[in-house]
Design goal:
The structure is a single chain. The protein is an alpha/beta fold. The longest helix is centred in the C-terminal third of the chain and has 18 residues. It has a single domain, classed as P-loop containing nucleotide triphosphate hydrolases (Rossmann fold, 3-Layer(aba) Sandwich), CATH 3.40.50.300. Helices cover 33% and strands 25% of the residues. Helix 2 packs parallel to helix 4. Strands 5-6-7-3-8-9 form a six-stranded mixed β-sheet, with helices on both faces. Strands 2-1-4 form a three-stranded antiparallel β-sheet, with helices on one face.
Length: 200
């Protein structure tokens, strides 16, 4: 993916990405202080927000190949299980109930799979969001502070799952995180943002 001359003004954030290459098959870190434009950049890549100017060359990636996990995930008014299988249903893919249960069990939410998703705690919501994002094996995954509300053991587990999934299918990850010490081991490449600019 190549991002060129990309501009977006949102409130006090004035994002300008002159030239950024998100190399495929790598785990990228996106770090910087609050309000520097990290989430805005992810939303632009995802197509949630339209740029004021500039371009994003997806290099063959389709919208259905990309998914995003946000810090406050949107959940359907349905069960945990129905939320998980939704990406498979809309893509017409086979639902392997046993494999889904295996993912849910590993994430520690199998016992609540029939529970209404809106009743989950913040940590459970993020676990659901993570499993829902990887269940259809997207080619590119955007993570916006998705692990921030997890306990230390769960956070470690999900870091391991990121690395495992990356090894299995060569997916591209762009991960926003303030937890530099814990997440740095994941990253093949790190992009630093300040005041809406990529500085290195």
């Amino acid at each position: 993916m190549r991002i060129t001359e990309l501009r977006k003004k949102v409130g006090k954030t004035d994002l300008y990405v002159e030239d950024l290459k998100i190399e495929s098959g790598m785990i990228h870190g996106l770090v910087g202080p609050n309000g520097c434009g990290k989430t805005t950049l992810l939303k632009l890549i995802m197509g949630i927000t339209a740029p004021d100017s500039g371009s994003i060359d997806y290099e063959g990636l389709r919208p259905s190949d990309i998914t995003m996990m946000s810090q406050r995930p949107y959940l359907m008014h349905a069960s945990v299980y129905d939320n998980i299988v939704y990406p498979l249903k809309i893509r017409g893919e086979k639902i392997d109930a046993a494999k889904i249960d295996e993912l849910l069990e590993r994430a520690g939410i199998l016992e609540i799979k029939d529970q209404y998703a809106g009743s989950l705690s913040s940590g459970e919501r993020q676990k659901l969001s993570f499993i829902r994002a990887i269940v259809f094996r997207p080619k590119m995954i955007l993570m916006d502070e998705t692990l921030s509300n997890l306990d230390a053991d769960s956070e470690k587990l999900f870091r391991e799952m990121v690395m495992e999934r990356h090894r299995e299918d060569g997916s591209t990850w762009l991960i926003v995180s303030h937890q530099w010490d814990e997440m740095n081991e994941l990253f093949d490449k790190v992009h630093h943002m300040e005041k809406g600019r990529i500085v290195k």
